[in-house]
Amino acid sequence: MKIVIIGTGAIGCLFGAVFKKGGLDVALLGRSAEEVGAINERGVIVERGGAEETTAIPAFLDASAAGRDGLVIIAVKAYDTASTIPQIRRMLSPDGAVLTLQNGLGNAETLAGDLGVERLLCGTTAHGSSVVGPGRIIHAGQGETLLGEMRGERSRRAEKIAALFSSAGLDARAVDNAPGYAWLKLIINAAINPFTAIHNLRNGALPGVPNICEEMAEVVAEAEAVARAAGVKIPCDDAMAKVRKVCAATGDNVSSMLQDVRAGRRTEIDYINGAIVRLGEKFGIPTPRNAALAAQVRALRSGRSDQAQ
Ligand code: PAF
Q1: Which of 20, 21, 160, 185 is catalytic?
Q2: Do the domains 180-299 and 2-176 match in fold?
Q3: 2-176: CATH class
């Protein structure tokens, strides 16, 4: 199966490198000429535990040049999701599938609204990865990748894709209730990312900050209440324990939101805590902690470059 990954950021480059090294037919589609040029010139560079590994992967700026693909993986920021639709249309083979591996709420819905729900798989990954330059990343935390149909069932198609990923060395599994897992990832992002951005800390340093675990638990409880009201079943009995585990497993990682703040880029706050607040308003569920964090992150000055402890 031919795979194209849209997005040459932390997750796009990581998955591209793992797949290519594992023998899969994969290409990257980017929107920055600098990134695509760097990848075509000298490959994707992954730094891990002090060592560097370079993998040659074809990268394209133009979707028509990437050819027809059986699987298109979306690894762009949530606010760029809609802009990938014309590109997907140019690349997807008639029976092809689209897998979103993005952070935030609403990505699968945006894609399915145009491409059809039957095309859509949603996935989550717990890998911690940061961009350090064009086509160059640091892989700071291993984790599982879960995927399944947007409609909720664990299909043969999802199992085949998970098996393909596993054959390339990625820890991947097909699941029932993929939208529930996407919500669990949303809760993890809501409880970790804004705090890392506000305090300028790596994930692993968060639990050491006074009172932060109580505040994280409030974020989690509000999000769980909203999910219940929306009819979503979260596949986890203790989401706060999961948040602590992710902080430990990705301890050295600079979260995607802190990376965005440091680089002066727009953050995904409106698709993470902001989305929980909006849905809470719809269902009459109060979400004061999520609202306060969203406001604080929106107010952060851009271009922070000091080192996280
Ligand atoms: O957004 C991120 O950075 C990641 O999803 C996670 C798991 C919080 C690790 O940093």
Answers
A1: 185
A2: no
A3: alpha beta
Buried b (16+ CB within 10 A) or exposed e, 89-125: eebbeeebbbbbbbbbbbbbebbbeebeeebbbbbbb
CA distance 263 to 254: 12
User: Is there a catalytic annotation at residue 185?
Assistant: yes
Q: How many CB atoms lie within 10 A of CB 25?
A: 14
Ligand 1 centre and the CA of 71: distance in Å?
24
Residue 74 CB-density burial (10 A; 0-12 exposed, 13-18 middle, 19+ buried): buried
With the most atoms of ligand 1 within 8 angstroms of its CB, the residue from 144, 219, 250 to mutate is: 250
pLDDT digits (tens, 9 = 90+) for 141-171: 888 999 999 999 889 999 999 999 999 999 9
Instruction: Render pLDDT for 249-297 as a digit per residue (tens, 0 to 9).
Output: 888 889 999 999 999 999 999 999 999 999 999 999 999 999 999 999 9
Task: Give the start-to-end residue ranges of the domains of the chain.
Answer: 2-176, 180-299
Which atom, in ligand 1's list, is nearest to the CA of 193?
8
* Ligand 1 lined by 55 (C-beta under 6 Å): no
Q: Is 131 helix (H, G, I), strand (E, B) or coil?
A: strand
* pLDDT tens-digit map of 87-134: 999 999 999 999 999 999 999 999 999 999 999 999 999 888 999 999
Name the CATH architecture for the domain at 180-299.
Orthogonal Bundle (1.10)
Binding site membership of 130 for ligand 1 (Cβ less than 6 Å): no
Nearest CA residue ID for atom 9, ligand 1: 128
- Which amino acid is located at 102 in the chain? Q
Q: Which two tokens stand for residue 120?
A: 């859509």
Please identify, by atom number, the ligand 1 atom nearest to the C-alpha of residue 189.
Answer: 8
